[in-house]
Amino acid sequence: MSEPVGEDAWLALVDEASRTAGDLEQRIGVVELYKRALAAEPWSNKLWLAYCEWVWSLHTDCQNGDAGWPEEEQLLGQELFSLETALDVWQQGAQATQYRLSDGHELWNRWISIEQEQLSGLEDKERIERIKRLFLDRLQIPHATWAETSQMSSTFITKYDEPAWESTMVEVTKLAKTAKELYSYREAHELTLAKANESGDPEAVKEAMRTYLDWETAQAVRKTKKSQPSSPPILCVALFERALASTPLGLESDTWEDYITFLSFITRELPNIPLPSVISVVQRATSHCPWSGTLWARYILTAESENLPFATMEQIKHSATNTGVLDRDGMDGVIQFYLAWSGYLKRRTIAPGATDEDIDVADMGLRSALESVEEWGQRRHGKEGWKGDPLFRIERIFIRYLTQKGLYRDARDLWKQLVRTQGDSYDFWQQYYIWEMTVWTPNSSPTVPTAVLSQAVHRHNLDWPEKVMEIYIRHCNNHEGVEELIKATDTVRRLSKSVARRRQKEAAEAAAMYAQQQPQATTEPATIESPSGSAKRKREPASEEPDDAAKKRSKNEKNAIDLETLREQHLKRDRENTTVLVTNLPPEATQTKVRQYFREYGHMNSITLKTEADKLSSTALIEFRTPEDVQSASLRDGKYFGDRQIQVKSGTGLTLYVTNFPPTADDAYLRKLFKDCGEIFSIRWPSLKYNATRRFCYISFRTQQAAVAATELDGQSLGGVYKLVAKYSDPANKKNREGAMAEGREIHITGIDQSLTEEDLQEVFGKFGKIDRIRILKNLSGKSKGAGFISFEKQEEAAAALDLDKTKLKSRILTVEMSSGTNYKPTATTRGPSASPAPDQEGDTAMSPSPGPETHSSTDAQNAVSRTDISHRTIALMNIPDTVNDARVRAIVEPYGDIVKLVLRPDHQGAIVEYADVASAGRAALGLENHEIVPGRKLRTGNMKDLFGQKGEIRTDKILVGKGNKKSPASFMQPSAPVRRPGPAGRGGLGVKRGLGFAAAKSDTGKADGKAEANGSAHGEGNKPMKSNSDFKAMFVSGGKQ
What we know:
Keywords: mRNA processing, mRNA splicing, Nucleus, Repeat, RNA-binding. This protein is of the alpha+beta class and 1042 residues long.
């Protein structure tokens, strides 16, 4: 019969035994059963309290005949269960449970009441002093009912030693200060745990206890300036024991591993502190979790470190294998156990005083370990399904053992056997080659190492053939003759072509798969419509660049369009099912360390790493390429990152796709909008570099409950204008394009005579069908550009209008074709005071509307605005993140004056702002310099030449591997500030630096004696202090009203 596991199971067993105990022998059997239970659960308050009550009942029952005991048993019971024996059991129980902060008082209060009962009517000074000492000791230990204990102590002293009451209370106050402080630090955790227990939810209890344990462990390992723990380690030990005995965590191997790790650390650091032995805890851990190969492996290692005899070690090994459940959580547990056993056998052979018998045992044991792992693997996965340990860990130990014995041939045979299962791994061939070079005699020809590399490069499915080829050539250069080097060079050249074809084939297959998926899935951002109602199309704005930039524009646009497929694929990243949330990382963890830790589990698209507010840990949100990668990464749940046990949970249900919010919304707006839903972990905005009209973001919450609550805001009206969209991120949710262009109802016309108007085109094209809208493109002066768009009600009518292609209308030949769109829109332009339009009910909107032809056109035409005048009224803003849209920029620049036009240029990290007058431009140039547009990013002002001298922001959303990741910083790289030189128009609308856009007031006397203040103050100002540059800047920004 197997032993019970957990305090409740033991209590059920002893309760049944005590209920049926009818004679002294059976009652003594119950006592022995209690001792076994307490050996398994030595810190259990329930078991100790029941045991003490049982022994006390035996003591009271045998004192007289009322309990019905036979006289012989009564006399023997009085001898076995004397008062001293019973009180000694109570004292043992009180000592064992004294550090259980929440319930240790239950047993102690019962014991102290019995002690006081024995004192009734007696004036035993020795016993009185003993009880006073018990109270004083108890009050120096933190516990939940300290105030009640203090009151009991005060009452006792008042009754039995009143003259010493004041001095005793002073002593208590002094000695108990630390205990009260220690409990006050833990009170919040205790309350949270108590509420979880009251709820009856086991998961809530486990979560509260895990949080408490993490905090308590951090306190115990943190040291003071005197290199002492900042908190007594015994409190952490007690909390672990409480969690393992009284919560469901006792059946989770991870908690036991945490406890063992903590004990090992504290024992090494503070060897003189009395704590439970590591080996006793490991033994109990394997009893609670017999399926954990990791715990059995730790049992082997701990027993070896305790120098237990081989017979005991062998008994532990057989106990582990006889459980038959080591593979419950996969083969890794089996491998971990046999790895520890194999390492133990190998170390015995090199220990001082090793015998031939030790070597024989290792020979047989190592081979047996390999065979046993093979049997476990085939039993679990089948003969064909089991491919062996991908890290061949036990085989490495065996090879090392054979190498130490000089059995190179046997070791080489084992390497050759591994080729069958590990032959497609670059890491395997590298280890194989290194071993061959280790046993190679330098004075001989390196034939065997060369043959190993030659065999490796000929593997068709090798995961990294390029690296193996590199090692092959380097080896031949360093160790082989010219003939072998030529042979290797020829082989590598020939195989390189095969590898290149393989890579091309893989790329083609990936492209074909993408092409198949493309019709079924569209990008999540809402389709952007032009003002005509059609979908996005390339616009033809007037060029704002200098001549050099204008020459490069065509090439840059072409390159951007060539990358459109890649960007679309990026947008289809299934963030909902390809992310994991990793918690309890060290606070000093970096993205590089996190990437290195998870790199073997899949390709990572991005990592968002945040340090928690308490500075004790960090949390990472990692996006992988596929859901399969997420499953692999989840294997690290509960494993260690340095000295931290991390939790890896799927990010499914955490990320929402949010759109149709006001165009000026930023992080602060969204956090306020969703503040009642739960904590937001991160907000990711799209780059506007290739499409400046995007208005959406991805919000990742801490918990699934918070994300669910946030989805309830979907459809909520914001300001009576916008209808919020907040849905789970799902790139497969296809949204068909809408509008005249997408529906084939819009035609594009070029070659329009400049004298023609919309009415003229209505007359010519109206005969083909009913026209929805006609728009002729015009420049700043209101003149026709010779191109336009016409939208019909029906697709057939638009197709019929194509008959006018290549026909002459007035003085020019028309070109008529169907409108075609593009997702490439690197700029966003707004004119006049209008803001971005409200989105429709489906969330389809343009970030910034196309201006109507009449905006400012008449004024510009009448005044014949010159380029020089426009230049003086225009400033350039630089260092704008490419995630900030034109509406947010407009909100910043609008307070300085009326805006004629704003052009957002995320491809140059900036924007061009044309004001209605020079003074407004000057105020903005001064007021916006060093303005913090987002945390950590300050604006710079200048002219358009400065702006177009800046390159686009270099973002590293995806993880870069290799040389590329050394050239870019973690988040973005800002180009160095351009060197500005003074000039007539080099100050962004400020003109020549002679004045600040306003004239100084004249003196009342109208005199100037040549000693006028250099800052422009009149001589008649008398004793007024001189104005500084800062004063003039403030005056200028306020319009000279100061």
